[in-house]
Amino acid sequence: MDAEGERMKTREEQVRREARAWYEAHWDPALPAGEWFRMMLEARWAYAGWPEAWWGRGLPTPLVRVVREERRRVGALGPPSGIAPTLLAPMLFEHGTADQCRRFLRGMADGSETACQMLSEPDAGSDLAGVRTRAERDGDEWVITGSKTWTSNAELVDYGMLLARTDWDVPKHAGLTFFLVRRDQPGVEVQPLRQMTGDARFNQVFFDGARVSADDVLGPIGSGWAVTRTFLAHEKNSYNPAAHEGGPFGPVNLQRPAGDVLAAEQRRLPANASGRGVGRVLDQLVRDFGRSEDPLVRQAHAELQIRRRTMGYTNQRVRSSGHAGGLPGAEGAISKLTVSEITRGQRELGLAVQGAAGMLMGDDAPSGQFQYFAMGTPSISIAGGTDEIQRNHLGERILGLPAEPRSEAAPLPLPVNDASPSR
């Protein structure tokens, strides 16, 4: 092992000892969850990859994993997960002011404030820069009119990360501005969107005169596309460290004992046949239907393993790239595409193994968990950027292939007021 390797090994052992000692000394399942979150934050263990100036330790991603491993070994509750620490935090580090970091980071880390993304629109499709939600300046505030769609948890969160158009006389990428808008205010209406799974996990949000303080503009006026690209880079990074901390996703009762919150999370994750958990459900289906020795099933399993290995190598590059907040390049798009391929492969194999029973749903199905996953599979190829967009990104921005024809030079026409949900 060379000198650099020895240095990293020594640093890893040091971080491991310090993290283990702190969690062993301070974890108390009887503490209110809010108090536990605050303690982790102030000790700089909640998000150890955050900059030292903002309640972190500036650790590179491999050492963030070490901290997480030691916390789980002790059995302690992780810090809040969700959109805010996963996506808003790195955006604040790159584009936010010191005042914005001070106001928003602490709230997301102690669980008192949550956020959702408000980027996609019904009429824009995958053309994210074609948004028509508009923001007009009114003194020290901006007035928002328009609508956003596919917003998870919009009915529950405190803030929305909103992309809106502030200039209609310039090319569409140049006329955008990014806002942090308070969700619970007059002029904001949230309507659920029912999916074929039976759930309404997404929403459409309508803005009719909602207001945002000028202090809550993220980045300079007109720089919304640059801010959004930071958002997208982290969103499609399947190894964004804050996405795997294991704490509660979304609002939580901060007075509830931390041990109870942890137990609820542990019950929830195995029951949700998505992500890593669906592999175990699929393996059980293969055994239950006696297909473990079927050569076609074994071949499909092998193909899924190859894709998982591919994603593992990709994530290894992201993990070794340095600071936890570093932007992935081609790795993010490749990883996002691989997740889509794995998800579709799992769905096809699981349904094929069940035969005609794969057409059943709910309590009638051999595995209601798997059927729920199968019905939700198409969303994986859409959420966070469609597969087609990821391929465009790889082809044009990474490989330098000719771009698809675009009409981006012309400004967008000013829309009519379509904010009302009755339209």
What is the compact description of this entry?
The chain has about 425 residues and is α+β, with helices and mostly antiparallel strands. The protein has helices at about 5-25, 35-40, 60-75, 85-95, 100-110, 225-235, 260-270, 275-290, 295-320, 330-355, 370-375, 385-400, and strands at about 115-120, 135-140, 140-150, 160-165, 175-180, 190-195, 200-215, 215-220.
Structural class, judged by helices and strands?
Answer: alpha+beta
Total discrete domains: 3
Q: Mind telling me the C-alpha Rg?
A: 23 Å
Proportion of beta-strand residues: 5-15%
Tell me about the largest β-sheet: 4 strands, mixed
The rough form would be described as globular
Poorly predicted residue ranges: 270-275, 321-326, 417-423
Q: Helix segment count?
A: 12
CATH class of the largest domain: Mainly Beta
Strand order of the largest sheet: 1-4-5-8
Query: Percent helix among the residues?
Result: 40-55%
The name of the CATH architecture of the largest domain is Beta Barrel
Mean pLDDT figure: 85
Return the CATH topology of the largest domain: Butyryl-CoA Dehydrogenase, subunit A, domain 2
- Give me the count of strands: 8
Query: What is the string of SSEs from the N terminus onward?
Result: HHHHHEEEEEEEEHHHHHHH
CATH superfamily of the largest domain, called what? Butyryl-CoA Dehydrogenase, subunit A, domain 2
Straight-line N-to-C gap: 67 Å
Write the layout of secondary structure elements.
Blueprint lengths: L2 H24 L6 H10 L18 H14 L8 H13 L2 H12 L5 E4 L15 E5 L2 E9 L9 E7 L10 E7 L5 E6 L8 E12 L3 E2 L5 H12 L22 H14 L5 H12 L6 H25 L10 H25 L13 H9 L10 H12 L25
Parallel strand pairs: 1-4
Antiparallel strand pairs: 2-3, 3-7, 4-5, 5-8, 6-7
